[in-house]
Amino acid sequence: MALLKSIFVLALFSSSLVLAEPVQATTSADVKQKSKEALETAADYSKEQKEQVQKNMEKSLNSLKEEIAELKVKAANKVGEAKETSDEQIEALQARQKELSKKLTEFKNSSGKAWTEMKNGMSAAIKKLSESYDKAKKEYQ
């Protein structure tokens, strides 16, 4: 009886193998195509990220440039040592802003891993410039 059950199970299992759909093998061409599609998707995403970061940095730099110009107008009303100090601060802010503008141009032309590293550096530099501006602005209030 046990032998009969074993034969029945074996027969049932064998027939299911025959009736099952054949499995298609993955070819190297399939792998290459999927890899190409994945790389293109990643590249598109990376490009979109870079463009967004670039727009945000341009916006921040333009805003800081306008604020520095406002400080310059306020500094024009000062005299003596206060004027000299104000002018020095504004010159330092403008120099940093100009340096960041050059770095932004480099950032625009960067690619791959380089843009990620530049993004981090640019973000830190913009933050530092913004903090310097805030410090200078407090002296005008």
Structure in words:
The protein has 141 residues and is an all-alpha fold. It has one domain (38-140). Helix content is 88%, strand content 0%. The protein contains four helices and no strands. It has helices at 2-19, 28-75, 80-109, 113-140. The protein starts with a helix and ends with a helix. Residues 16-20 have low confidence and may be disordered.
Name the descriptors.
single chain, mainly alpha, rod-shaped
Question: How does the SSE layout of this entry go?
Answer:
Elements: H1 2-19, H2 28-75, H3 80-109, H4 113-140
Helix pairs in contact: 2-3, 2-4, 3-4
What does this entry show, briefly?
By secondary structure, the protein is mainly alpha-helical. The chain is 88% helix and 0% strand. The chain contains four helices and no strands.
